[in-house]
Amino acid sequence: MKKKIMRIMMIVSSLLLALVVLLTVQMIFRVRTILIQNAEKSGNQVDEYSDKAMRDQLLQQLSATTRGCSYIVNDNLENFAGTVTIMADAATDMYSHPERYGSSVVKIPEKSDIGKSMGQFLFSEEVDPNSPSVKEEISLLANMQGSLLAMYGQFPELGATNIGTETGLMLLAGPVLPERWDKDGNYASFDPRQRPWYLAAKNARRTSFSEIKEDYDTKKLAIMCGSPIYRDGEFVGVAGAGIYLEGIESVMMNARISDQGNSCIIDEHGMIIFSSQDEGDLKTQTILGEGKKDSSLKKLSEKAISGERGLELLEINGKKCYLAYSPIKVVGWSLISIVPESTVLAPKESLLNSLNINRIMELTEVQKVLRTALTTVLAFIVVIALITVVISNMLSRQLVKPVEELTAKVRAIEGDQLDFEWTEDTGDEIQELATSFGFMTERMKKYIVDIQAATAEKERIGVELALATEIQASILPHDFPPFPDRREFDIYAMMEPAREVGGDFYDFFLIDDDHLGLVMADVSGKGIPAALYMMISKVILQSCAMLGKSAAEALNKMNEALTSNNKTDMFVTVWFGILEISTGIISCANAGHEYPAIMRKDGKFELFKDKHGFVIGGMEGIKYKEYQIEIGHGDKLFLYTDGVAEATDINNKMYGTSRMIEALNKDPDVSPQQIVKTVRADISEFVGEAEQFDDLTMLCLEFN
What we know:
This protein has helices at about 1-95, 130-140, 145-155, 195-205, 245-255, 295-305, 340-385, 390-410, 430-455, 460-475, 525-545, 550-565, 640-645, 655-665, 670-685; strands spanning about 115-125, 160-165, 170-175, 210, 215, 220-230, 235-245, 260-265, 270-275, 310-315, 320-330, 335-340, 490-495, 505-510, 515-525, 570-580, 585-590, 595-600, 605, 625-630, 635-640, 695-704.
């Protein structure tokens, strides 16, 4: 009987154990299947999200970069046209009120002057330069020589600046070229009235750009701008200037957002005038979509020519590419930036490869845990086979229950719902399996968050700061000596921004042959807002000075311009002086800026405590007072911003003007360049490892 009972119990126990084994193995493999399916589903979701996010981010960057570069080109050309208009207005005033200007002289070039930048007259064939009326007009026009030379120096990409008249005269500022003489050695004639820029401005009766033409002398491609001149309402001539196209090409190249990207500029006829490609559909001197009736490039060209901006996916040279286009309105051009679709998708492919590797590693770990769990269950079954059927049943249920709960929780994970919570503490392989799956779901969620963070700001800030740094560096004088043919003075300056771009600026420019403008200024704040305010302030001040304003009048006009709509509450401190080179007298005005330092010959530097006016842009109606400083042979003038005096070391101790004066007087007889470098080195020694928190700007002038 006992044997029968034992046999029955063994049979029942064996059947129950076999059933438990079957159910356990089935559930474990169901968990494994669900894990794999969810991993693949999560991978597909990551694929879909990353594709859209990365594509949108890069295309937004492409569009923004294209708009920014086209704005820069457009803004440069508008500034260029504005300067030409100012020249025309000044000439109109001169023709309308000749009694205000008197007579001046322009040297007739000789062959020994070839290569020099200077004022020069050209005549049409029928003009007699010895005629009294011609001489009178020449002596009047000669008053514009300084302004034309100043404009030529302001825009390095200019071919020349000029004024042509209805009487057949042309005053030109620029390099003396060998083409000025014919083969017989005679000074060649030139009729400005027949040139496209002259006719365009005359017919339009406003400032106008001509079409792209070869320069009359150098044969380089250039675009000319002309503005009409009047005498009491009667047309008398045109002020004009030509800008070589090669000077615009460097800005175009900044529209490329990767090494595989390209860019080009098309004119109002759809002709490609610049391109980063030497061959294929986008090479220079080709028309987009030429010869193709239904060409997508032709349709894009028509949209760009009409002044639209947008983004399209087209096939270029057999490859699918994204093309962003934005107008350069002032001349009717359009900038086009191109990036291959493969470049847009490359970050996504790299991310997915990384996710696949991690997913394979995680699934491998899961399989190890599953094998361990199965081995443990089988060993446990062998042990409990010796126990009674009831105990076997109870143990089997304990093993199956957590697997069922885990399976239910895994099944609940669908779609974007990746949350997994395991509250049971079984203390066995099922617990490890649940913990591993929990880690895997957390990593999946982290990957999605990382994708958003990785693509949100990629390269945007770098492109903007690189453009801002390049623009700010190019707008300040940076070639020394700046006037190699002027021996009356020596000048050197430097500006080191605390960030990529700054608000400090210096400037110096010849108003005419006998007057040199000197500027030292500090805009409130730092970074890109301060840099933008700095460039506006610089252009306004220089424009006022070039119109013949005194130092105080220039600051008055500058304050009126900056306070008229100052919603940002920004301001700028300015020290502005006009040196009369022939006498050594500097007419100065100070708008809340630091005291200048002066060294008399064989003496030492001392602060010149002048009278300060209120800051520029702070309040409307401020009138600035002017004072004079007289300097002689060997005297030096040192200008600086508060970043010098307020430089601090790691203990927050300020450098101060007293130590600055000591540094200036270490060797005051050296050149302005060495003086500036000496002060900079002393500041570096004082500051040590402390971070630079303000812009450092200095200028030194020696009067000879």
